[in-house]
Each structure stands twice: as structure tokens, then as C-alpha cells.
Amino acid sequence: MATERLILRRFRASDAEALAEYRSDPGVARYQSWDAPFPLNKADLAVRNFAESSPDKPGWFQYAIELTAERVLVGDVAVRLHDNGRQAEIGFTLATAYQKRGLATEAVSAVLDRLFRLQGLHRVMGECDARNVASAALMERLGFTREGLLRQQTFIKGEWTDDLIFGILDQEWLARDSAAHLDADLV
Fold it and tell me: 27, 92, 139, 143: least CB-packed within 10 angstroms?
């Protein structure tokens, strides 16, 4: 799947080094389930597992985010398709050097478009550490509704953390897209 600046694709073996590099950044790993550094052997295994999964079957699938102009892996978007095939959870990670350029918004938008338009999902949810204001802001920008705060929900990296829960429904995503097209037609 391609956007203006990105290719979202299946992971391949050659991505392991870049994955290890951005997952080893303490700033990137701060609110994630893994610890930095993220060794190359662990990245090799992760990439193999990512490559074997399917975006159309229940479970986790990781889209590699490749910056088209530089032909470099800059992050990933994770989707966990529920067993019912109508709901999913989404997560995203972007290398520090590529943050604050709208790339995560572009990548997550493309994945949401696929989930709602092509796969016919009804609902997508996202969850993030309540201190991760950048992730929360991205979901809100994309039209997710903040549905809740789970106090001291997750014990990670030696501390209890609060989690924010977000959700977006198919009709909200599709209406947002229709409204954008209407605005463009008026210009």
C-alpha cells in the first residue's frame, strides 16, 4: 500500500538492522513493551515473525513503514485483528529522526483506510500510556474518540502506568473522509 511519501509493506529480512536501530532508541522504547537496546538477533526473530503473519487473519500484523524518497525503514504500524474479523487494535512506532513530519499520521491513515474500506471493519481501538501525549494527539487528529482512562492498568519497566483508550467506528472514519472530499470540492 502506498501513500504520497510512504510504502506500507510486509517486513523482510533486510529490515532487521533498521528495526533494531529504532527500537534501541530509549525515546522510542519509552512507552513500548520492549526494552532498549533491542539486539539484532531479537530484531531478526521479530522480522521473521512479522513476515509470517497475515493482515487478513486474526492476530498481530506489522506493516513496515518505508520512506519512499530514501528507501529506508522508518517505523511500523501494528494491527491486531480480532477473531470476529470486524474489530482491531492499532499501534504505531516511528524512528525519532522521522517524527514530527506527519509520517505517522500518513501511515496510520492508510492502514485505517484499508481496515475500514477494504476489510470492512466496524471498530478500531488504540491504547497508549497516558504520558505519551504524541500518540494520544495522533489518534485524536485522526478522529479517534478518547473512551477512557485505565488507572494503573499496566505494570511496565518497573512502574504502574495509566492507559488511555481510544476508539473509532467505521461510520466515523468514512464520514471524515467524505467531509474532506467535500471540503476539497468547495475550494
Answer: 27
